[in-house]
Amino acid sequence: MHAQPVALITGANQGIGLQIAKDLAANGYTVLLGSRSPQKGETAAQSIGAAAHAVQLDVTQPDSIAAAAAHIRQTFGRLDVLVNNAGIAEAGQPGRSGEEIRRDSHASIASLDEVRAVFETNVFGVIAITQALLPLLREAPAARIVNVSSPLGSLTLNADPAFPYRQAYSVVYAASKTALNAVTLAFAIDLEQTNIKVNVASPGSTKTAMNPAGTDTVEQGAHYLVRVVLDADEPTGTFTGPGGALPW
């Protein structure tokens, strides 16, 4: 068995996922960078150093998930942390502006094909990779699953007419984060008598390729998510952000 604790971060070849990997490596973890592209994954791992390893992983493809789980067991023999960071904001026709994406996401006109594609990554992919890696996580002395969400997924916040981002609530990205929150709570309840804590957390308004209007750096966004991973006192089944607890 690998001597150091091992963490897998999905969607880790860039942005917040890559920064989470860097931060966990700095805290003594061997980090596995899940990436659909092996080449991009290898480049990202090399930017971290010897503690980082690329793992080809497409969370929408069962064969890729099974191969990644087998590789982790055979190569490292353990998994202590799973950060489900991989996600997409839209899957419609390329070249649309941000305003067009928001308009096309309205519940009255959204394409079901786009809804399905976004849920495939943001919701079903999380369930699939988590289920595949649970045998390894169950063997860890104190395992942690952290799913990356957003206040946009909060039903409580969006039900308040005063919530400034209410008009951005859609059946595409925002609803996928609502579903992810529900999935997280379901796993937390299912596993609450085990050694595995399951939490959902928001990095805040982080500027990334998916969120160019963000106000925080990836270092700031990743810092909070890593804190959730490392905080041994954080209870299971919480939804939090940089400012503290978030309403479901």
From TrEMBL:
Tell me which InterPro entries the record gives: NAD(P)-bd_dom_sf, Sc_DH/Rdtase_CS, SDR_fam
Tell me which PROSITE patterns the record gives: ADH_SHORT
Q: Name one Pfam family in it.
A: adh_short
| Signal peptide segment | none
Q: Which UniProt keywords apply?
A: NADP, Oxidoreductase
Annotated family: Belongs to the short-chain dehydrogenases/reductases (SDR) family.
Its protein name is: SDR family NAD(P)-dependent oxidoreductase
Q: Which organism is it from?
A: Hymenobacter bucti
